[in-house]
Amino acid sequence: MKHVPITVVSTPDNTPKGLFVNAVGWDYSAILLSADFNSRASLARDLGEKHRRVVSIRLPTVKPFVVASVFAVELYIKSLLSMQATPVPKKHSLKGMFALVSDSARKRIEQLYDIEFAKEPALQESKAAHGGARDREYSMEYVIESCDQAFVEWRYYHEGTIASGNPNITPLKNGLRRYLVELHPTWDELIEEIHRK
Fold first, then answer.
1. Are 181 and 187 in contact, with CB atoms under 8 Å apart?
2. φ, ψ for residue 87 (rounded to 5)?
């Protein structure tokens, strides 16, 4: 099979809707990568201790999953900031950007984060296993802090950098997306359109 180089040219669309559409694209990529990662993790569990290390070392989708998830979160936040008429920073700091989100929006996003967190059985089990001793680590605030520079760090992980991150990024990503759709219900159709492509 002959490989043909691909050139993608896009027109920047920094409108709230344009940022949302881009975020959904990254979000969808993270969903696909998560499915692959979860199937490989299940395989590692099924193979048992003898082969677990071999399979876990070869989980190539973890890094792109983190990058895609965190970048989707960043773009969802930038979409929201653009709606608020807040200047959108050209940085990758989730904590810095989220601090610019209005108090009422942050409160609603946190409610949606809690709802989305409740839908994740693995996260619920992990939280229960700690018996409340580490509840802060499951809060939205902690997720934002621990993933603050994850987009940059995970892109350069191959250079031996220490990468931060948090498995609770999915409820945050889903909560942000739900909030933006609450503000613009017709954007839900955009999600369907992207998933059909």
1. yes
2. -55, 130
